[in-house]
Each structure stands twice: as structure tokens, then as C-alpha cells.
Amino acid sequence: MKPEVVRNVLESYMRAWATGDKALLLSLFAPDCEWSDPVGTPPFKGLEGVGRFWDFAHQDTTRTMSPKIHRIVVCANEGILNFTMQVRVPAKNQGLDLNIVDRFVLNEQGKIRTAQAYWDTGSLSVPPGLEGFAPNIDEAYDK
User: Is 107 exposed, middle or buried (0-12, 13-18, 19+ CB in 10 A)?
Assistant: First the structure.
């Protein structure tokens, strides 16, 4: 696979988060994909699972998410994306910065087959002047 194909998918993934474009995000994933966010939690499976994760992240309409890319590394059909997701809830004076390393594996059609987000509590910081908060990822799973 050409490196520019993988790079384009990763850049489009970031653009989807930056612009709130769920349709764009879903278009990047394969129907049989698995997304672990963070690694070690049960994966979100298929486009329905990806959509459920997206809806969880966007459940508060006053919440903004601005990804800041630090580095993209592409090897064959895989890519690593290191970025900080700046999450803000201005109405509640809340915010958090989450430094994430995402690993993506694309299938032969150039769609994300595997997405793995690596982050832990040491990856979190609270911006000056804001109160921290921690979304409960358990709410994203279909019970």
C-alpha cells in the first residue's frame, strides 16, 4: 500500500474529529473493524460500534474536541498517529488534554480494519484555569 493512502486516511480521521463529521469518520472504517479505545477495554466492533463510540464522545453538544497532531508515522498498510485531543466544555468551565498514540491497520481497500488507542491516566492533563473531568467510557458500551 502506498504511504500516501495511509497518511490520507489518518489525516481524514483527524479532520473528522476536528469538524464533527461523523459520516467522514464512518467512511474510513471497514465494516468488520475493531476499535479499542483505550487498548485493554472491550473493542467497539463494526460500523455500529464505531458510531456508538462517536455518539458517546459527542453526547454533550456543548463539548468541543480539537485534535492537535504531533506526528504521523506510516509503514506499509499501518500508521501511528500521535496527537493531543483538547476537550473543552465551556459552559461548565471544564477541560482536559489527552495525549494519545493511535495505531491503525488498513485493509486492502484502504479502510481501517484495526484501530488501537494507547493512553492512560498519565496521558491526561487539565488546562490552566479549567476544571478537569473524566468521561465514563463504560457509558459507550451497549449494555
Answer: middle
